[in-house]
Amino acid sequence: MKLAFFDDFKLGVIKDDSVVDVTDAVSGINHTSPQDLISRVIENFANLNGALQQAADSGSGIPLDSVRLRPPLPKPGNVVAMAVNYMEDGTRDAPAPINAFHKSPNAVIGPGDTMILPDVPATIFEGEAEMALVIGKRASFVRQEDASDYVFGYTNFIDGSARGLPPEGNTFYQMKARNTFAPLGPWIVTADEIDDPQELSVKLSVNGELKQNFNTNDMAHKIPRIIEWVSSVHDLEPGDVIATGTNHRGLSAFQDGDSIDLTIEGLGTLSFNVKDDLKRTWARTTRLEMAEQGKEGTTPQLTGKYA
Fold it and tell me: Rounded distance, CA 184 to CA 71, Å?
């Protein structure tokens, strides 16, 4: 099943190129916000699945191009993102030590929304294509062999980054947690629809040009280990999100006017826009292309404030 929010946060089930309003099927759930509703649906999905499926099968679909899709998880309690979690097409000799960081729930935006690049002296703004896990039940000190029981589903995720902010070493919070820096969606795909989450193609395009192109089989620390480790640090709740990391070699600058499309096999396409009031520019060179030119780091800013 593919669950989505649309228009004024009506709950819907995606069927082909349409969405069916299934609000009535969950009308008995008391909730305080759209996130509270989807978290309760996820937590009680075993009991609600039948009613949701019946509503989806009997309801009339609304064309997706006539509705506004919203983030399917509008404000998760936890947005955890794995750090340096890919083998980078074999260019890493060994996995980096397992590590992660928090992004603010306020960073979440949805399909068709806009990532805003702030007025800060970042050396570059990047968006990392990632597959995200959606937690299905309370998770604390989960064993790897039980980890799949805690995955409700999957969704597309972008980890926005404002890199190089001073002072040196004071990085992750101000780089990662900014408003609009966590595009997510377009819907949640329940785990039963994905045969092998460690064998999915991930493609990110900027203005129609393919930039990132990798497979989740390149993940250094696999999903069971991720859930084991994160749940040993703090509890996870239904509706929480864990983004599983990216292959950095295809990263390039996000800049004003960009149209971004992230497609993960089986999860649909997340599309959103980028706005920078300062109109700063960078070359479109990827990290891999920089390395092939014998240059270190990311492409420098070309024009605008802080160049």
Answer: 6
Q: Which fold, 79-303?
A: Fumarylacetoacetate hydrolase; domain 2 (3.90.850)
pLDDT tens per residue, range 47-105: 999 999 999 999 999 999 999 999 999 999 999 999 999 999 989 999 999 999 999 99
DSSP state of 119: S
Domain with CATH 3.90.850.10 in the chain: 79-303
Single pTM value for the model: 0.97
SS3 90: coil
Non-local CB neighbours of 14 within 8 Å, separated by 6+ positions: 2, 3, 4, 64, 187, 268
Instruction: Transcribe 9-77 into DSSP letters.
Output: TEEEEEETTEEEE-GGGGTT---SSHHHHHHHHHHTHHHHHHHHHHHHHHSPPEEGGGS-EE-SSSS-S
Question: Any idea what the Cα angle at residue 255 is, between residues 251 and 259, rounded to 5°?
Answer: 85
Burial label for 199, CB within 10 Å (0-12, 13-18, 19+), is exposed
Any idea what DSSP says for residue 197?
A: T
Parallel, antiparallel or unpaired: strands 268-275 and 114-116: parallel
| AA letter at 24 | D
Q: Indicate the helix (H) or strand (E) that contains 291.
A: helix 287-292
Give per-residue pLDDT as tens, 164-216: 999 887 678 999 999 999 999 999 999 999 999 999 999 999 999 999 999 99
